Amino acid sequence: MSPENQPTADVALRFSVLGPLRAWRHATELSLGPPKQRSLLALLLVQADRPVRLHQIVDALWDEDPPEHAVNVVHRHIGALRRLLEPELTRRTEASVLVRAAGGYRLNTEDEALDLLRFRRLRDAAQDASAAGRPAEATGLFVRALSLWLGRTAEGLPRTVHSHAVFAGVDAEYLHAVRDAADAALASGDTSRVLPLVRRAAESEPLNECLQARLVLVLAAEGLVAQALDHYQVVRSRLTSELGVDPGSELREAQIRVLRGTVVPTRTSPSGDPKSADTSGGSFPGGSPGGSRGVSPGAGQGTTPGVRPAQLPADLHAFTGRRAELDWMRDLLPADGGTPAAVVISAIGGAPGVGKTTLALHWAHRNTQHFPDGQLYVNLRGYDPAGVALTPSAAICYFLEALGVPAEDVPPSLDGQAALYRSMLAGRRVLVVLDNARSAEQVRPLLPGTPTCVTVITSREQLHGLVAANGARSLRLDILTVTESIEFMAKRLGAARVAADRQAAIGIAEQCGRLPLALAIVCARAEGHPSAPLADIAAELAESRDDLGVFAVGDPATDTRSVFSWSYRTLTPEAAGLFRLLWMCPPHGVSVQAVASLAGLTTAQTRPVLSELTRASLWTEPAPGLYGSHELLRTFSQELSLAEDPPEAREDARRRLFDHYLHSARGAATQLYTHREPLPLPDAAPGTQVLSFTDTDRAAKWLVREMPALEAVITRDSGHGTGAHAWRMAATLELVLDRRGRREEQIELHTTALAGAQRLGETLGEAHMHRVLGFAHVRTNDHARGAAHLERALELFTDMGDVPFTALTHRYLAFLANVRQDHREALAQYKIACALYTRTRAYVGIASVTNEVAWTRLLLHEYEEALGDCRRAVRIANRSGNRNIEAAAWDTMGVAHHRLGQHDEALEAFDHALTHYRALNDASLIADTLVHRGEALAVTSPQEARLAWNEALAILDVLGHTEADRLRELLEEHDEVPSRSGPVIINI
């Protein structure tokens, strides 16, 4: 290890990520465990002293395909790393190195303990010296900083992890430091120390013109002029063969400076022969990524004499991403380079601006060697601003002319032209690119009839007819992933600029809907303002998110609004009308029933209209029966609606959509939570499609799938609607949100709904929101605020004479009293609630109170009395046919038996409870009962206890429940047994 890599000896924990991932405790190197654990440590180290959120960890470790229990795996690795890094930790001491922070974890380390932080400190000092006009000092600091690099960042990690942008960003810091070191050395005349550094960086990035230009200049400064000029020619040939481009201005300027002799030599080779100088320099730390692969031009054997067309437009130099799609297209050609057995037709479909043409041309340029007889290209203008598509006859005549057929020899009829066209291509190896097609009918006459040709078609239509009748292979192009969007921006703006503020870059990508066209427009503007922080650009886009004018460029071919309008103008009136309303739908996938409600149509009437929008790629169907679109098309839809639809029509559509979600949600919640009095609702608006649920499984799955939409109803109606839907939806979802355990999210939603009810002047809505917020605040141990909300709710319900919800509020106050350890006050509140239920003969309420009284008896250690209450609750619930309360009472009974040491009776009661809860699909209470069952098994059957707790943990992780962390920490301690010391179960 070089001196720079050796920190001060008194650092207890040391880490290295600039090369292979390593760690030491004092003088002992640590074994860092399996690949996923090493990857997690590397991810935390490259972001040392900053919190890394849990979802970011999952995304980095598993890319876009995490396993079902990914979160659980992360927590296991965190526990193992804590034990490795701080072996002295006990369950009762706080970790100081690997700590919880901001919904994830942070790794705390000193500057001297991590080579990356030492590199950054030296690099920053070098940059300061350069800025102050001290290039010699800067050169020395840069060399010291770069000597810390022993390989690529965290070398040896799995490829899928190492390709993550956070590691690429650190690698980019290295490359930019090399560039700056070369500039400082050239300015100071001290290039000998940086030549090996620049050479190995340039070899690792053979297409990086910035680094190649620095290497040319440094070689010349070292007196190796011939080698510098030779290297320029090598790079120039590589750029031409691999990217189809000439050197850029920076690289050309370097060559010109060498030719003119304006690079001042710092030393001369003794023999004047470049070969006598040291030409070593290795590779990028850790080696080159695999070298470059040139594209050999086609030999052209068997070429038919005549014209060889080469009509492909230029490839995009900054093309990025689409690896899966390019792999798919690679299979269009035989692996052995021979002739396909049948005619090959590939149809690339997708939304406007998604990059169909760019992908087709990039693939075409990469494969020209397979088509020595030429490449034909035509823009069929299927969605032209002028509204006039190219006719098949005009396109064929254009191709025939390119193939050398005189105009007088072209037949007058379309059939004759198509026959001649196919004859001219027979036996020839030609690529045909048909861009921007309108329909299958426009394309069919242009298809070659020989398997030696390949046809690639792009269209916003899905061209199902070509797939069915002509055997075309269909590729649906979607928006970019977040990772591809970041790569897209890094290619255009530079990796360092993007890595410097990755969160802002992600924000820009999301504001652009990850649509390549919009990203390209924003990047072009950002390139024109190189000093502008990406955060400022992201903020500007956020402020203009409802205005496509921010993406206007004055060119109809690349202006997003113009591009979208070409597709919109082709729609039937019915489809156009529906498209104008679709911006009101929640951004996640929406069902046919939701869209039908929005339009005021039946589902049978809605399906063909949605099919038309899907064929036009203005909406997509990511899953059967679920529809959606990206944000920019939604903005376009909103612009059209505000301009063309009367306000009353928009309001009627919004009410039908919100009624669909509200009434369907109440049906699902009522099916799941039969022990709760359903909230009365006004009738749904005419034309609303309301779903009905006959089993708990379907109801539970619908609520999970639609939860983002249901929450959106609350926030949208509170902010921009009447507020009437907001509080009713919030009250309907009370138990759904409570079971998920996401208290802060629940409080935020219900606070929003309370504001809407108060603005509307709805006393009933205000009362319900105070009730729900009171209980939620008690759940988060904010007792004072919870009590204030509950007292206000009780006052309002009492004034309105609402007996069922007055009783429920008393039960909530009893729960608060139990939390405060005032169990006698809790019993008094339950007595009031029971009297109210008895007055109205509400037997389900009576059974609920009886079970909750039993739980209070447990807290008072009155176990025999608790058993008696449980048996009464089971009998009442059974007679009422309410499985929710019966399950809750069995669970309470199991705890009572366990406290009395009645082991077998406890397990039998828990099994009864689990049978009911599983039938009800109540995941949260299944987990809670499993925890209780584990407690009963812990002494006699510890392995069975762990099985119960692990099953509970898996459920809580899926729910994202706050109780998961507590249970996980207990499981990590093999000799600890989970226990509860307060009211946890309450079936309200």
Rg, Å, rounded: 34 Å
Query: N-to-C terminal Cα separation, in Å?
Result: 64 Å
Tell me the strand order in the biggest sheet. 8-9-10-7-11
Beta-strand content: 5-15%
Find the count of extended strands (DSSP E, 2+ residues): 14
Largest sheet: 5 strands, parallel
- Give start-end ranges of low-pLDDT stretches: 1-9, 268-305, 552-558, 974-988
Shape: globular
Helix content: 55-70%
Query: Structural class of the secondary elements?
Result: mainly alpha
Mean pLDDT: 81
What is the count of DSSP helices, taking H or I runs of 4+ residues?
43
Key features of this structure:
988 residues; mainly alpha; five-stranded parallel sheet; three-stranded antiparallel sheet; 43 helices; 14 strands; globular; disordered N terminus; disordered C terminus
Report on the architecture of this protein.
This protein has 988 residues and is mainly alpha-helical. The chain is built from 43 helices and 14 strands. The strands form four sheets. The protein has a five-stranded parallel sheet with strand order 8-9-10-7-11, with helices on both faces. The protein has a three-stranded antiparallel sheet with strand order 1-2-3, with no helix packed on it. Helix 14 (392-402) runs parallel beside helix 15 (414-425) and helix 32 packs antiparallel against helix 33 (763-779). The longest helix has 26 residues, at 647-672. It is globular.
